[in-house]
UniProtKB/TrEMBL annotation:
This is Membrane protein. Keywords: Signal. Gene3D superfamilies: 1.20.1260.10. PANTHER family: BLR2558 PROTEIN. The lineage of its organism: Bacteria, Pseudomonadati, Pseudomonadota, Betaproteobacteria, Burkholderiales. Transmembrane segments: none annotated. Residues 1-27 form the signal peptide. It comes from the Bacteria. It comes from Caballeronia catudaia. Pfam families: DUF4142. Residues 42-173 form the DUF4142 domain.
Length: 181
């Protein structure tokens, strides 16, 4: 219980001062979040990596129903699993920086595969997605791991690079095997 009107005025003054400081604290938090915005290089990496991953996943889902070769379907299933994990990791980092829009798959690549079936699909998928797509992804992730500005993105790219490089090696071997048969 307050003993005097003066005590009541002090309490009210402190309460008002605390309330007045709250927006300043929020403004400082907002400016701190803005200072953590990604550099153009890192933003481009997120956009390109997101599109590459979305394309890989979409094309690999097509492969599950359009491919005639069991090995193509098995490769596609592995790509779905691995690239979904990678996309989740990159999404977490993107969301920390306020980027929430999911990446869209490359419609030209998906469109070129959509109407193909069997061996024709297998050949196009191996060439456009497995080999060419992973070659570009290796270059993209290597560049980010070497010259990106955001430490979390650089670390994620560095961690993903051996997996993507392995996918690329598998794809190259796969292409050679299919060409020989």
């Amino acid at each position: 219980m307050l003993r005097s009107p003066r005590s009541l005025i002090r309490v009210l003054t402190l309460a008002l001062a605390a309330a007045a400081c709250a927006p300043v604290a929020n403004a400082q938090t907002d400016s701190a979040a803005q200072s953590q915005k990604l550099s153009p290089i890192d933003q481009q990496f997120l956009q390109d990596a997101g599109q590459a991953g979305a394309t890989e996943i979409a094309a690999s889902k097509l492969a599950l129903s359009h491919a005639s070769d069991r090995q193509v379907r098995e490769f596609a299933q592995r790509m779905i699993v691995d690239h979904t994990k990678l996309a989740r990791n990159l999404d977490v980092i993107a969301k920390r920086h306020g980027i929430i829009a999911p990446a869209a798959a490359d419609s030209a690549v998906i469109g070129s595969l959509q109407n193909l079936q069997g061996a024709e699909f297998d050949t196009a998928y191996i060439e456009k997605v497995a080999v060419s797509g992973h070659q570009k992804a290796v270059e993209l992730f290597r560049k980010e791991s070497e010259s990106g500005n955001d430490t979390a993105l650089k670390a994620a790219a560095n961690k993903a690079l051996p997996i993507i490089s392995h996918h690329y090696e598998m794809a190259q071997q796969f292409a050679k095997t299919k060409a020989a048969s």
